[in-house]
Structure formats: C-alpha cells, structure tokens
Amino acid sequence: MIRTQGLACNYAGAQPLRFPDVDLPQGGRLLVQGRSGSGKSTWLSLVAGLRTPSAGQVCVAGQALTDLRGSALDAWRARAIGFLPQRLHLSHALSVHDNLALAYFAAGLPRDDAAIAQALHPLGVGDLGARYPAQLSGGQAQRVALARAVLLRPAVLLADEPTASLDDEAAAQALDLLQQCCRACGASLVVATHDRRVHQALPGAQVLDLNEIGLQGNQDGRKQL
Ligand code: ADP
Ligand code: MG
Known about the structure:
CATH topology: Rossmann fold
Mean pLDDT: 92
Structural class: alpha/beta
Radius of gyration: 17 Å
Order of helices and strands: EEEEHEEHEHHHEHEHEH
CATH superfamily: P-loop containing nucleotide triphosphate hydrolases
Strand content: 15-25%
Bound molecules: adenosine-5'-diphosphate, magnesium ion
Low-confidence stretches: 214-225
Distance between the termini: 29 Å
Number of domains: 1
Helix content: 25-40%
Number of strands: 10
C-alpha cells in the first residue's frame, strides 16, 4: 500500500509542489497524470524515498519513510520498491544477467543466478542474459529493466513514463507486462505519465491528477505551474 499525507517538495528557487493525499491499497493501481513539469517524477522520488519531502508523510507497505535514514533507507528501498525510471539506468559495463544481480547487491542479499534466469524468461528476454545493454533494442532494454525492478518481488512498482518512446502496439504490450509482473508478485503499480493511451490500458485505476493541483494552487496563490 501507499499512503501519503500533506506531501510537499521545495526545490530551491521554485514554487513549492504540494500533492493531494493518496491512499492506495496493496495490489492497487495508480495513474499519476499531469503535464510536463507538474511534479510526476518528483512524486515518484518522494514515494521511493529518493528525495525527502519538505512537508508531509509517506508510508509504503507499512513503513513510514521518515523513520528511515541513510543505509537503512537504501536497504529498505532495494527490497520494497521496484523502480522503472524513464532513463533505464542499466549499467553498460555489465551483462544483462549481471545488471539483474545488482538488485541483490543493493539489497545486501546473496545473488541467485537461477532466479535471475527465471525472471528474464517471462518477459521474453530469457536468451539475452549474456548480452550487454548496448546490444539491446529499446523495448528489450525496458524489459530487462522491468525484470530487475520486480526481481525481489517489491511491494510497489513505480514506472516513470514507461510508454514515452513506444508506438501503440509496444506501449500496450509494455503496460500489459507491467500489470502482469505486479499481479505475479502482489505489488501495487504506479504509472506516472502524460500519455493519454495509458488511461485506456489501466481501466479502473486510481488517478492522482497533478494538473488539478496546479489549478487549485493558482487559485489560492500557493502554487503556479
Ligand atoms: P514531471 O515529471 O511531471 O515532468 P518533475 O517532477 O520532473 O515533473 O518536475 C516538477 C517541477 O520541479 C518542474 O518545475 C521542474 O523544473 C522542477 N524540478 C524537478 N527536479 C528539480 C531539481 N532537481 N531541481 C530544481 N527543480 C526541479
Ligand atoms: Mg517526469
């Protein structure tokens, strides 16, 4: 589950971003929508504990993030959060297989090579373990990054603009895979996007609309986007 209360983020020299509260049950799906610059990626980084809010609280899978610091926060994130960033952050110096092994190192767990091979298979990249990221197509690289994100069966999968550079068919497939992976491990799914196609692919998902807070913010003078 994800619960946020009174969440805000101040960037130096910019208007503060204030976010509506979210209460997403475990296994639920959330669409974070809004125009470019509305704060979608910022919200994801707050929920992942990658950024400290200037106000408010985040609780993920029963863990209040304000209670964690430093290496304890890093270890918690490595186990509880699957993150599929817009730029995939695959290491180009490592094979696909070893890129997945990084998930174990980050979590302080012994690597499990059999589990890595198994994780690649259902995403259709089971025979690419020995390749390097530079030898993958964009779609293959995304699947590898997704396999790494869900390898440790996180409580939450956060995907930032996962359809950004994909045609209609590839976008639909990518969203299908995200949902399949989350169902398989019981994870909640959060997709941040300004892509209207995602709405159709996630019917019934909760929506966090950051365009709306822009309007409210302008009305009460707190925030301008
Ligand atoms: P989105 O993902 O919706 O495009 P972001 O969360 O990236 O929006 O950005 C929200 C706002 O915060 C934008 O105005 C952006 O310029 C600003 N911002 C994002 N990251 C930083 C940063 N590291 N330093 C200063 N301002 C930032
Ligand atoms: Mg963004």
